[in-house]
Amino acid sequence: MAEEKLVLSVLVDNVSGVLQRVAGLFSRRGYNISSLTVSETEDPAFSRMTIESYTEPENFRQIKAQLLKLEIVKKVAELTDDKSVSSELLLIKVSAAGVEKKNALLALNMRYGARVLDVSMTTMTLEFTGAGSTIDMFVEEIESSFGIVELARTGITSLERGEGSFTDDI
């Protein structure tokens, strides 16, 4: 059976060691985490983890159940594309020596809407946010046209659509 993308929003206690415990659970079960973002929520007692993994669909329920067995985990929800909004951040340093290269990069940049953060004699550093697939296209186009000096991506961050908060019933 083919692996599918699983995106989970996990509400956890905002205490030391939480990341290690959750990542360890995935590791012990042989599941790879392809993306992981963690940050304090609107309530400083909790942190939200957005975890992306690829696995067989029959494992989805088992992963959620195993997470909920950890006392530090308060809530787990699966986030599907139709019921959530997601974004990712990219910082990318691009080869752009000379005015011609810089102008060509700025023209490409206009199509995607990235922000220019830094300009040096030979490089330009850009910030871009959006869906992972759009970021992938942006990176591919930059790589083929200019060359990448360095890049960093945050990984997926997601929220459920609609009213209310993930922490409402905690």
Task: Summarize this entry quickly.
The chain has 170 residues and is an alpha+beta fold. The chain is built from four helices and nine strands, in the order βαββαββαββαββ. Helix content is 29%, strand content 41%.
Polypeptide structure, described:
With 170 residues, this protein is an alpha+beta fold. Helices cover 29% and strands 41% of the residues. The chain is built from four helices and nine strands. It has helices spanning 18-28, 60-69, 99-112, 132-145, and strands at residues 4-13, 33-40, 46-55, 73-78, 84-95, 115-119, 123-130, 148-153, 157-160. Strands 5, 6, 7, 8 and 9 form a five-stranded antiparallel beta sheet that branches. The longest helix is centred in the middle third of the chain and has 14 residues, at 99-112. The chain is elongated and about 55 Å long. It starts with a strand and ends in a 10-residue tail after the last strand. The mean pLDDT is 94.
Helix residue percentage: 25-40%
What's the main sheet like? Answer: 5 strands, antiparallel
Mean pLDDT: 94
What structural category arises from helix and sheet content?
Answer: alpha+beta
Binned strand content: 35-45%
Oligomeric state of shown chains:
single chain
By DSSP, the count of extended strands is 9
Instruction: Give start-end ranges of low-pLDDT stretches.
Output: none
* Individual helix count: 4
Shape: elongated
Distance between the termini: 36 Å
What does the radius of gyration come to?
Answer: 19 Å
Written as H for each helix and E for each strand, in order along the chain, the element string is EHEEHEEHEEHEE
